[in-house]
Amino acid sequence: MIERDGLGAAARGLRQYLLAVAAELDAPAWFCEVDAPATAYLALERRLARFPDHETALLWDERDGWAAAVESATGEDVVVLSYLGSDVLPAPEAVVAFVRGLYEDDYPGQPDPPDFRRPGAPDGFDERLAAYASGETVCLPEGQA
């Protein structure tokens, strides 16, 4: 398993990618873990009509990409409803379209994890992340990685 430098281009790229997706969705909060396997959580403001008592979120990981989820009844776990399934790093606009479909009850995506890649594999993934990195330091709100 590889370790990513938390300040390196891949880690900065992941943060920039998540910032882009969060901005497109007007997500109130997000968190990411940059080391392999990289993961992320984006809280969504609205609840799904079919789960009105459960918080809605997007999950991302470097194996399966984006997934829509709701908190379990206890609030301790999340239950994945659907995987976007198009790519491990789809354009932010594709993620927005996925979320729109969720709120429109279109049941977008796929029910099973797509298993795009193995974390840490030398397959160009870190280079794809690094492409999202700008030359500027990203200032993040306190509590976000």
Description:
With 145 residues, the chain is α+β, with helices and mostly antiparallel strands. Helix content is 24%, strand content 20%. It has a 5-stranded antiparallel sheet with strand order 1-2-3-4-5, with helices on one face. Helix 1 runs parallel beside helix 2. The chain starts with 8 loop residues before the first helix and ends in a 15-residue tail after the last helix.
Compile the SSE list and pairings:
Blueprint: H1 9-25, E1 29-33, E2 39-43, E3 56-61, E4 65-71, E5 78-83, H2 92-103, H3 125-130
Judged by helices, strands and strand pairing, the structural class is alpha+beta
3D shape: globular
Helix content, binned percent = 10-25%
Q: Give the CA-CA distance, first to last residue.
A: 21 Å
Output the radius of gyration.
15 Å
**Strand arrangement in the largest pleated sheet:** 1-2-3-4-5
- Note the main sheet: 5 strands, antiparallel
Task: Please give the number of β-strands.
Answer: 5
Name the average pLDDT.
86
Q: Could you name the key traits of this structure?
A:
145 residues, five-stranded antiparallel sheet, disordered C terminus
Please outline what is shown here.
By secondary structure, this protein is α+β, with helices and mostly antiparallel strands.
